Amino acid sequence: MKDTLVVYYSYSRNSKKVVLEVQKKLDADILELEPKIPFSEDYDAVVEEWQNNELKRDVEIKDIGIDLSHYSKLVLITCTWWYGISPVMKKFLKEYDLSGKDVLVASSNAGWIGHSFKDYQDLLPNSTIKGELNLVFSANDGEQDKIITTDAEIDEWIAKIM
Ligand SMILES: Cc1cc2nc3c(=O)[nH]c(=O)nc-3n(C[C@H](O)[C@H](O)[C@H](O)COP(=O)(O)O)c2cc1C
Fold first, then answer.
1. Cα 97 from Cα 76, distance rounded (Å)
2. pLDDT digits (tens, 9 = 90+) for 105-121
3. Which domains does the chain have, with CATH numbers?
4. Which atom of ligand 1 is nearest to the CA of 43?
5. Does residue 53 surpass a pLDDT of 90?
6. What is the atom index within ligand 1 of the atom nearest the CA of 13?
7. What atom in ligand 1 is closest to the CA of residue 16?
8. What pTM does this model have?
9. What's the gap in Å between 79 CA and the centre of ligand 1?
10. What residues contact 124, with CB distance under 8 A and at least 6 apart?
11. Can you tell me the distance from the alpha carbon of 37 to that of 42, in angstroms, rounded to the nearest whole number?
């Protein structure tokens, strides 16, 4: 049984690439969060909806189907939506108790991470956040899947939980 779990939500698959690298390096289990009702595959439609979503509506997520009490360490990775962590990750942190666990957090973004780390801090009041990673991808048209954050920065972040 492994003691580390990587939990992630990645809408357009940028974060997922880093998730797989982190999982391998930490020899961790992995959990992908999924919204109960999938978001549209039309990227622009999703951006439009969330930019105009004043209420920042709650998103229901599928049952995770695993017992989190087995893990003492969690690595949380999500995309940034509208200057904060994704509604999917928010819902996970509201529904599941991570008290007493050591946690690494990351929010992938195109240069505007906003209040994502504060979101994590607010939703993890009884966990120890060991490291925060600003996971930056290009904001240039046609290059949004190009990673800017270096492997060395990712390794330095991972080392904080090893
Ligand atoms: C609905 C939506 C909102 C976004 N809001 C932000 C934002 O506030 N700041 C930012 O830098 N990037 C924003 N982005 C871009 C993504 O955060 C960025 O491309 C990220 O790397 C995507 O990760 P993923 O492929 O794992 O979903 C947004 C993207 C979407 C779809």
1. 14
2. 999 999 999 999 999 99
3. 4-159 (3.40.50.360)
4. 31
5. no
6. 25
7. 26
8. 0.97
9. 6
10. 93, 98, 103, 105
11. 14
